[in-house]
Amino acid sequence: MNNEKPSDEYKCPACQTTLAGRDILLWRPFSCPNCHEIIEPVFYPRGRGIGCLSTFLLVAVLLALYGMKWYWSALIGAGAGVLFSLLRVQVARRFWPKPYAVRRHEFRTETHGLLQWAELLESIATAEAWTDQLEHRLLVIDGQRSRDDSLENAAANSAQNFKRSLQGVPPPKKYRREVDLTLDCRRERMRLIARDLRFAAKP
Ligand SMILES: [Zn+2]
């Protein structure tokens, strides 16, 4: 976790080992150094639904008591509930950028898909130039992936970013911060993601 050591202790939910700050990756699910279970940071305490609902009820009931028509009260209450929920996330993000906890990562992809990504990343990590063969493999695997799995997304993004840096194409805006990463650093990142994908694929 950057250079900063978290003041809180994080424990692996699978084996209860205490995790050091450097073990915790913020941008993707990662493997526990002890049991290799894939775990991920959780940034906000749960209960967003309850916060949203209670704001909705409170605002709607108060407005109705003040004589507003019930449907307007309900509508404004619903808006306030959503707004409260969004604000809470913004405030948490601003003042509490550290993970709240770590939890087990739940995969939405089958073992076969994870292994395909691992193999592809390992091949890409050794490549000196972006070949048609790599392009083809990336297209095929990327076309099959489940887009809501964050480890697979990390695999796909690292492959795409490596391809761009081999081709000298500037990265999209949201990856600008990574523009300074050296090729070797990118290769290492891909190897680590491949390693974690292999841990995840083990029965
Ligand atoms: Zn563990």
**Strand arrangement in the largest pleated sheet:** 3-4-5
Bound compounds: zinc ion
Q: Helix/strand-derived class?
A: mainly alpha
Approximately how much beta-strand content do the residues carry?
Answer: 5-15%
Rounded radius of gyration (Å): 22 Å
Report mean pLDDT, rounded to a whole number.
Answer: 87
Low-confidence stretches: 1-7
Distance between the termini: 29 Å
Task: Summarize the biggest pleated sheet.
Answer: 3 strands, antiparallel
What does this structure look like?
The protein is mainly alpha-helical. It has three domains: 10-43 and 99-104, no CATH class; 48-95; 111-201. It contains six helices and five strands. Helix 3 (111-126) packs antiparallel against helix 4 and helix 5 (150-167) runs antiparallel to helix 6 (183-201). The longest helix has 26 residues, at 70-95. Mean pLDDT is 87; it is low at 1-7. The structure holds zinc ion.
